[in-house]
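Late entry, evening session. Most of the bench is empty. Finally got around to the prediction I had been postponing all week. Sequence below, unchanged from the version circulated by S.P.
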Amino acid sequence: MISESKNRLGKELHESVPPMEALEAFLKERDIDENKMRLLLEKGQTLMFENPPTQP
């Protein structure tokens, strides 16, 4: 069986892309309105600040 992986954020993005850059690329790809995008990026930044990733 062949398994295929899809990158929904575009070919240029890689797993090492910082979360905020990935979110911004995702929103741009979806043609989100600039004002709504700014609000969503602010909310995303707040969530990441309140819940930082744990280091192994």
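Two things to note before I forget:
The chain has a mean pLDDT of 80.
Residues 19-50 form one domain.
Will write this up properly tomorrow.
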